[in-house]
Amino acid sequence: xxxxxxxxxxxxxxxxxxxxxxxxxxxxxxLRQLHKECHTPISYKKxxxxxxxxxxxxxxxxxxxxxxxxxxxxxxxxxxxxxxxxEDKAVQIIDFVKLEEIDPIYFEKTYYLSPxxxxxxxxxxxxxxxxxxxxxxxxxxxxxxxxxxxIVRVYKNTLVMEVIHFxxxxxxxxxxxxxxxxxxxxQKELETALMLVDQLTTEFDPTKYTDDYRTAxxxxxxxxxxxxxxxxxxxxxxxxxxxxxxxxxxxxASLDKTKKPTTRKKRTTTRTKKNA
Length: 276
Prior knowledge:
It is a single chain. The protein is of the alpha+beta class. It is built from 5 helices and 11 strands, in the order ββββββαββαβββααα. The protein has a 7-stranded mixed beta barrel with strand order 1-2-8-11-10-9-7. It has a two-stranded antiparallel ribbon with strand order 3-4. The chain has a two-stranded antiparallel ribbon with strand order 5-6.
């Protein structure tokens, strides 16, 4: 399993060297865009709106737009210093709370935590502590130059880290438009709805839920591929990048230079010398 982060977690004086692994993966079926006329893949280029020309990565700087069309340019060195300072810190568990106190709206992404070479004993200690207390740990972690709030909990004998949103990242429900206020509900309708809920109530089994759209889409793709219906072979007509063109020119020049000259018979010509 790929390691996305490596560091340590501490609570009190206990320090646990750990590795972070993504616990979930995106199973979306990715579709490419082709030019309808010639079936060449569509590419996206970085173009300067002012110069109307394509720019390279080394020609781009980062900036913050503090008001319309006004920016503060940030040096890569300054950003790197901030990132380094944050990433060098150990992840410290700040508080312990009950899981049910956190609404699911805060949850963003889940990672598995595994102990590093020397962290097995401390790992087991934290796991057992969380299990016995019935609590979860609140911590901060910096991943890919972004500081994030997180919780540490136990899932199937494994410590997991759930990245959660900061409070100011969750929009206020009061701002949602057209929410009805308190209205009278007909008792008979409520009783019928509760009966329906009771009939549909069961234990949660995640294996019974499948992505029907993804399954249907893959079946369609496989059927078309088997029939040869709608399949195309793309002829890459895109021009070679400059560095490839230069390389080809250099190779061709080298070949021309090493070619053996063709042997030709010398023609004898008679020249008439003029008298001085």
